[in-house]
Amino acid sequence: QEQLVESGGGSVQPGGSLRLSCAGSTFTLERYVIGWFRQAPGKKREGVSCVSSTSTNTYYADSVKDRFTISRDNANKTVSLQMNNLTPDDAGVYYCATDLGPRGRCGTAWYLQSRFTSWGQGTQVTVSS
């Protein structure tokens, strides 16, 4: 079963940075859309960012624009989420996901979780002073 694996979570102070990484456990990510989602305690999981298979298109939630950057590292076959200027509102479990679809495009409805069929187990991000 295709599965994703996240890494890079941890605990930082407000204003700090973290870099999350997503890799495929049994497959490589180059051909597929990759989305990042997060879930804070007591809240619904929400879309954070999405990158197309060719990196031509990237999308971000309004709350993270200009602070987070999604990118592909095809040499290492990973997708990263660089998170800067973190606030306590960014805390939660971060998941990467893919739809394993042939189109490789995020689309304007990239944040809809129902299209994503393979998910990682998540990595915890804590932001506190």
* Beginning-to-end CA distance, first to last residue: 40 Å
The secondary-structure element order is EEEEEEEEEEE
> What does the overall shape look like?
globular
- Mean pLDDT metric: 94
Give the helix level as a range of percent: under 10%
Oligomer: single chain
Radius of gyration: 13 Å
What structural class do you assign from the helix and strand content? mainly beta
- DSSP summary, beta strand count: 11
Give the helix tally: 0
Largest sheet: 7 strands, mixed
Percent of residues in β-strands: 35-45%
Poorly predicted runs are none
Structure notes:
The protein is mainly beta and about 130 residues long. The chain has no helices and eleven strands. The relative contact order is 0.32.
What key phrases describe this protein's structure?
mainly beta; seven-stranded mixed β-sheet; about 0% helix; single chain; globular; four-stranded antiparallel β-sheet
What is the fold's blueprint, element by element?
Elements: E1 4-7, E2 10-12, E3 18-24, E4 34-39, E5 46-51, E6 58-60, E7 68-73, E8 78-83, E9 92-98, E10 118-119, E11 123-127
Parallel strand pairs: 2-11
Antiparallel strand pairs: 1-3, 3-8, 4-5, 4-9, 5-6, 7-8, 9-10, 9-11
Summarize it.
The protein has 129 residues and is mainly beta. It is 0% helix and 43% strand.
